[in-house]
């Protein structure tokens, strides 16, 4: 197995001066992201170090091989989900720039306001993550819900926006008031970045 060592990305400095999402929250959140990067690399090293005997003992109830494979997917999900999340924060929020993304949102949700209401309700319902994704099998945008870093993968769906709904994303600032955090999330979105992600969907 080839090891691909991952390095944590550097995000825009604007994420440290957002309205409604404090620098303290961002600092702690980035430490968590770095932890996912570290564990992803560590688990790869452990997998490469397994013996033929370890592979022979692999089974679905419990084995070191199964454990490492499962936790690798959790760590990788933690890396990628956070990279999408932080990459489109630090913007000015507001309405999506005029363009193909706005037209697609209006086509699939009826209006931009309807899209926001659906995303917020999905965020209130999720235990871990929400993704606005382009389902290129159905050719539509949809807000998908996930309860952990590595659960609820959706085939043929390319995420263009990620909303972290774990408590660590908002508890310092809002306590249990997740709805206000989601409102702040909208206020700090860089829609141009989301539009870029949407434009990249055809390269999947």
Rg measurement, Å: 18 Å
Question: CATH topology of the largest domain, anyone?
Answer: minor pseudopilin epsh fold
Would you state the CATH class of the largest domain?
Alpha Beta
Please tally the β strands and state the result: 3
Tell me what the CATH architecture of the largest domain is. 3-Layer(bab) Sandwich
How far the N terminus sits from the C terminus, by CA atoms, comes to: 24 Å
Q: Secondary-structure element order, as H and E? A: HHHHHEEEHHH
Number of domains: 2
How do the strands of the widest beta sheet line up side by side? 2-1-3
Structural class: mainly alpha
Q: Let me know the largest β-sheet.
A: 3 strands, antiparallel
Binding site for Mn(2+): 29, 82, 164, 168
Domain Manganese/iron superoxide dismutase C-terminal: 97-197
Organism: Candidatus Roizmanbacteria bacterium GW2011_GWC2_37_13
Family: Belongs to the iron/manganese superoxide dismutase family.
What's the arrangement of secondary structure elements?
Layout: H1 23-48, H2 52-56, H3 64-87, H4 100-109, H5 112-125, E1 129-135, E2 140-146, E3 157-164, H6 171-174, H7 178-187, H8 191-199
Antiparallel strand pairs: 1-2, 1-3
Helix pairs in contact: 1-3, 4-5, 5-7
Function: Destroys radicals which are normally produced within the cells and which are toxic to biological systems.
Keywords: Metal-binding, Oxidoreductase
EC number: 1.15.1.1
């Amino acid at each position: 197995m080839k090891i691909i060592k991952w390095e944590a990305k550097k995000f825009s400095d604007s994420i440290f001066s957002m309205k409604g999402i404090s620098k303290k929250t961002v600092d702690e959140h980035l430490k968590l992201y770095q932890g996912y990067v570290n564990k992803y690399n560590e688990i790869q090293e452990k997998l490469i170090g397994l013996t033929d005997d370890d592979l022979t003992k692999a089974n679905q109830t419990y084995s070191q091989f199964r454990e490492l494979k499962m936790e690798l997917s959790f760590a990788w999900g933690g890396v990628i989900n956070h990279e999408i999340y932080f990459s489109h924060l630090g913007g000015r929020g507001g309405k999506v720039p005029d363009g193909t993304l706005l037209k697609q949102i209006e086509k699939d949700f009826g209006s931009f306001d309807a899209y926001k209401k659906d995303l917020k309700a999905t965020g209130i319902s999720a235990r871990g993550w929400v993704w606005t994704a382009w389902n290129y099998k159905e050719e539509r945008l949809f807000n998908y819900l996930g309860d952990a870093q590595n659960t609820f993968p959706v085939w043929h769906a390319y995420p263009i926006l990620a909303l972290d709904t774990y408590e660590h994303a908002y508890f310092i600032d809002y306590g249990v008031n997740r709805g206000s955090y989601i409102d702040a999330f909208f206020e700090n979105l860089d829609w141009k970045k989301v539009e870029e992600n949407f434009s990249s969907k055809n390269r999947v």
